[in-house]
């Protein structure tokens, strides 16, 4: 499955999501679908975190840059407008991924 190259790909490692899902007894297409859902939910969670830190006008600029996949300009904007942007994104991702792993562990115990 191709991985999307989002502006935060260099600070958020999602390999553990795939490893965790591989541990479940599911059909390959089910694992792929769950991985895609997890990545999409992670993306929306990170986007929500960033957008909640921006003023209204900056939100529009940010979304336009994301739409055009302009990573350099996204990080320029975030470095000026959001204090500790990388750290906030990392913490959001870590919390999301931890919760996902907790859910996977729970799925194992419900077999």
Short summary:
With 111 residues, the chain is mainly alpha-helical. It is built from five helices and no strands.
Written overview of the protein:
With 111 residues, the chain is mainly alpha-helical. The protein is 74% helix and 0% strand. The protein has five helices and no strands. It is elongated and about 45 Å long. The two termini are 27 Å apart. The mean pLDDT is 91.
Spans of at least 5 consecutive residues with low confidence? none
Q: Helical stretch count?
A: 5
Mean pLDDT: 91
Q: What class, by secondary structure content?
A: mainly alpha
Pattern of helices and strands:
HHHHH
Q: Which term fits the overall shape? A: elongated
Q: Descriptors for this entry?
A:
111 residues; mainly alpha
Blueprint of the fold:
Layout: H1 15-22, H2 28-53, H3 56-67, H4 71-81, H5 85-109
Helix pairs in contact: 1-2, 1-5, 2-5, 3-4
């Amino acid at each position: 499955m191709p991985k999307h190259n989002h502006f935060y790909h260099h600070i958020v490692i999602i390999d553990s999501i795939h490893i965790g899902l591989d541990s479940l007894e599911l059909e390959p297409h089910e694992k792929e679908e769950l991985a895609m859902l997890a990545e999409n939910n992670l993306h929306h969670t990170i986007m929500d975190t960033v957008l909640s830190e921006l003023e209204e006008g900056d939100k529009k600029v940010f979304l336009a840059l994301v739409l055009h996949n302009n990573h350099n300009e996204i990080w320029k904007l975030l470095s000026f407008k959001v204090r500790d942007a990388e750290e906030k994104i990392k913490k959001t991702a870590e919390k999301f991924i931890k919760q996902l792993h907790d859910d996977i562990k729970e799925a194992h115990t419900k077999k």
